[in-house]
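Exam review. A common question shows you a sequence with its structure tokens and asks you to describe the fold in words. Practice with the pair below. Do the first one on your own.
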Amino acid sequence: MRVIACDIKEFSAPGVEQVDFDALIRESDVLSLHLHLTPETAGILSREAFARMKRGVVIINTSRGALIDEAAFLDALESGKVSAAGLDMIHGEWDEHLERHPLIHYAATHRNLIITPHIGGSTVESNRDARLFTARKLAEYLRRTAKDARAR
């Protein structure tokens, strides 16, 4: 399998070819988003970006919902431009009327869209590692606090 990736920084990873964003969206059969939401990345998957993608592309978003123009995305799903998608986040996921969200409605009536409540990275290992990280930070803070108290 050819693996391509796009990043604003130069990188090197075995078996991964770095390409620019245009090549990424034009050449990908499966496009997986893993980036921060910033003013520059908001709506990065725009109507224009969907137009440049291969027909039948699969989209995975484990980042933030606002990276995707959701109206354009819904059109792409309905037309078959996007054949399937898995979203671990949608824009407005904290809205009290989430049941009215167009993507929630689409996912309830179509088999080619799966939406999870931002738990895609929640594994036994990631939960354990997060707890260990927090415990180590707390232990270090307590050590420094005790050391500072003894120094007084």
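Now try the second one, then compare your answer with the model answer below.
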Amino acid sequence: MTTTRITTPFDWSSTAADVVRDIVLTGRRAIVTGGASGIGVETARALVSAGAAVTLAVRDLDAGRRVAADIGGADVAHLDLSDIASVDAFVRDWTGPLDILVNNAGVMAISTLRRTPEGRELQFATNHLGHFQLALGLHDALAAAGNARIVSVSSSGNLASPVMFDDPDFRTTPYDPWVAYGQAKTANVLFAVGATNRWAADGIVANALHPGMIETNLGRHMDADTVAFHRERAAAIRTGGGNGLKTPQQGAMTSVVLATWPGLDGIGGRYFEDGNEAEVVDPSAPQTSDPHGVAAYALDPDNADRLWGLSLDMLAAR
């Protein structure tokens, strides 16, 4: 069955502030993971400006407090998504309903293979498994809110790799930082599909997104040559008439659309970019230097079910 792609009034150039200009979130509660830097700051700023009570879930509490003061006030709580005990502690401390969960934090293209203490590959553990554990723990809070939304920040990196179900931790597969990043970003999309399929009846939907090309500290683990390559690529895109790099305010826009736009009430399991639902593309086809779209394997409900089961097994094996 085919569905009509969702369009909104927003596009590549829109900002998070544009989205919430006429939105009122007074009385609603939101969590933004990684809310102390990059697009997490601008996502939180927009939600606060619309009246939401926002909690910044961050590793660095001092940085979180500085951001909270800068954006006009927010709660700050410690969360390290690569540490299962930290996720458990965050969930235990949360009380009351939760309207919006923005799974924003992440790491990208770690140059050498790194593992968590449990032996999980760090990008998969941080970008997907920690957020999966967080959402499971907050399910009842989301259900208590009614009409709750989960925003899963993915990437065009989903085109680089499906989830490698038989070897997600690179036990036998040679490690490649972009393949590892790609499977984690695919997992972010599949989580949105799986969560919506399981939790829509509880009043919870989830959607995933590509924020666009933004230079933030997400790339802090990349080596200097890789950083230089991406800056040159962005410059080439602009020279060729493309859009190139977004500002953090533009990069946060699609997250805020998924968190707040009224036209998405009750809709989940989809993937957006530049404020609108993206088209499904063939990842093996030649890509532009600024790739767009989502791979069919990232939206496949059978893959979503398989990932859900794998993720539960990984958490149980800790």
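Model answer, second protein: The two ends are 39 Å apart (CA to CA). The first strand starts at residue 29 and ends at 33. Full marks require stating both points clearly.
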